[in-house]
Amino acid sequence: MAQVNVTINGRQFRIACDDGQEASLEALAKSLDQRIESLRGNFGEIGDTRLTVMAAIQVADELAEAGRRIRRMEEELTALQDARVVSSDRARAAEAAVVSAFNSAAERIEGITRKLNQTLGNGVALG
Predict the structure, then answer these.
(1) What is the DSSP string of 77-107?
(2) Does 2-117 carry CATH code 3.90.10.10?
(3) At 12, phi and psi to the nearest 5?
(4) What is the DSSP pairing of strand 2-8 with strand 11-17?
(5) Cβ–Cβ under 8 Å, residues 57 and 36
(6) Mapping DSSP to helix (H, G, I), strand (E, B) and coil, where does residue 5 land?
(7) pLDDT tens for each residue of 40-51
(8) Residue burial 48-69, b: 16+ Cβ < 10 Å; e: rest
(9) Residue 51, SS3?
(10) Are 45 and 37 in contact (CB under 8 A)?
(11) CA–CA distance from 90 to each of 56, 83, 125, 126 (Å)?
(12) Which H helix or E strand runs over 66?
């Protein structure tokens, strides 16, 4: 298990993480520190705990919004998958109808050819 030293709100923290996750953890800590500094710039010195809580609420709000967007996208994906199934079923039905129409036309043509051959009766065959 790796150990990373990060600075958040002017304080050093030693945090354990999985091997290979050090850079990600450092980036997350830097992002949180920047949020706190931004809030300090907007609201002044209102207390470290309060600034940290406000930054955490911002992160929680963004996470909740991302969750809502993911749910909407999942719903859209499900609707698109359902539409694809319906479209595929319609395409198969249309294909079957076309095949049936061609088979029917072929049978009629064969029937007409037989009748013509019978009508001619002089030994000349068509088809």
Answers:
(1) HHHHHHHHHHHHHHHHHHHHHHHHHHHHHHH
(2) no
(3) -90, 135
(4) antiparallel
(5) no
(6) strand
(7) 999 998 999 999
(8) eeebbebbeeeeeeeeeeeeee
(9) helix
(10) no
(11) 51, 10, 42, 39
(12) helix 48-120
108, HSE (Cβ side, Cα atoms, 13 Å): 6
Higher pLDDT, 123 or 11: 11
d(CA 22, CA 66) in angstroms, rounded, equals 24
| Cα–Cα distance for residue pair 77/75, rounded to 1 Å | 5
Looking up tokens 């029917």, which residue turns up? 104
Q: Report pLDDT digits (tens) over 26-42.
A: 999 999 999 999 999 99
